[in-house]
Amino acid sequence: MLNFVTTNPGKVREATAYLDDEVRQFDFDYPEVQADDLGTVAAEGARAAYRAAEGPVIVDDAGLFIDAFDGFPGPYSSYVEDTVGVERVWRMTEPEGDRAAAFKTVIAYCDGEDFAATPDPVDRAERRGQDLAADDRGAATTDEQVREGDASGETLPVKLFEGRVPGEIVSPRGEGGFGFDPVFEHDGTTFAEMSTEEKNAVSHRGRALSKFAEWYGER
For residue 119, what are the domain limits? Predict the structure, then answer.
C-alpha cells in the first residue's frame, strides 16, 4: 500500500483517481526544510516520511510561481498567503504589467530502493547531503535530525514528478477553492470559480499524479 503523506483527505481522493485503491492517507508531520525549489522540500519530506512509515510514500509540495517576481512566492506560497494575503499579491502584480504565472506541484516518491533516472530526475540530496539516521525512524522532528545522515553514509534516492498549469494573476473571483485560487485564472476561469471536478481535471497536482501513476504502474 502506498502512503500519501498529507493531512488533507481531498488530496487522497484526487490521488485515488489515478492510483485506484493503492493509496491511503498517512498523517505525519515531517520537518519541512527551507529551500527555493519544490523538489528539495518534497524530497526531504519523503525521506523523513519513509523512515516513519517504513514503507513506500509520496509527498507533494506546491506553489504559485509569478513571472514578474522571478517565480516568487513559489515554495513560500503558504507563508506569503498568511502574511501578505491573496488580494495584496494581485495588487502587487498589477502594476508590473506581466500577469503570467503558473501553479506547480512536485510529487516525491521514496521506497528505500534505487531508481533509473528517467522519466523524471532522482534526487539523492547531493546538494544538501541530508537524510535521516537509520535508528531515528519516525523520530525526526527538527532540521538537525534530518541532517544527521544515514548510518550507511548513503542518501535515500527520491523520484520526482512535476505538474504545471499555466495561467495569469487576476483580481479575485469565485467562492470556491483555497489559497491563491481566486486570483489564478486558467483558460478564462479562476480556480475558485471551478467545481472540484473541473479543477481536478486541469490541476497541477493531477498532472504530477498522472506522471507518477504511469511510472508507478510499470514499477
Answer: 2-218
